[in-house]
Amino acid sequence: SRVKRAGKVIERIGSYNPNVNPAIIDIKLDRAVYWLETGAQPTETADRLLAYIGAKYKKHLNGGVAKGAFDQAEADKRFELWLSKKEAKIQAKIDGLDSDAKKKVLANLKKEKSTDCDSALIPLL
């Protein structure tokens, strides 16, 4: 069941601020993986956030280590590779947002200049 029992927080492992672009997600990865491996069942929203930061992938890799598919060093290497790709995507989004903001400012300035020139050419009666 996804209903709160006592209404108390067992452990606060992070925070999420969707009001900025890109959203700020600050979650302790090790504690999130610990709780997932313990059997915690996050809500749908929390589940998406945990997948976004890589907690679910790290849990998956730890399962491979436990089964003997590969060693911990290989799991860490795979996670670091995934993390570097993820950070590159986030940085690309931030750079895109910055360039979009600059384009909007320049477009607004150009629009204002053309409006000022047009109003100066209107004859006064």
Describe the protein in words.
Helix 1 crosses helix 3 and helix 3 packs antiparallel against helix 4. This protein has helices spanning 29-38, 44-53, 55-67, 72-120, and strands spanning 14-17, 24-27. It is mainly alpha-helical and 125 residues long. The longest helix is centred in the C-terminal third of the chain and has 49 residues, at 72-120. The mean pLDDT is 85. A hairpin with a 6-residue loop joins strand 1 and strand 2 (24-27). The termini are far apart. A two-stranded antiparallel ribbon has the order 1-2. The protein is built from 4 helices and 2 strands. It is elongated, with a radius of gyration of 24 Å.
> Can you give the mean pLDDT?
85
Strand line-up of the largest beta sheet: 1-2
Count of alpha and pi helical runs: 4
Which structural category do the helix and sheet elements fall into? mainly alpha
Q: Can you tell me the overall shape?
A: elongated
Oligomer: single chain
How much helix, percentage-wise, in residues?
55-70%
What's the number of extended β-strand segments? 2
In what range is the share of β-strand residues?
5-15%
Radius of gyration, CA atoms, in whole angstroms? 24 Å
Note the main sheet: 2 strands, antiparallel
The parts where pLDDT drops under 50 for at least 5 residues are none
State the separation between the terminal residues, measured CA to CA. 76 Å
What is the H/E string? EEHHHH
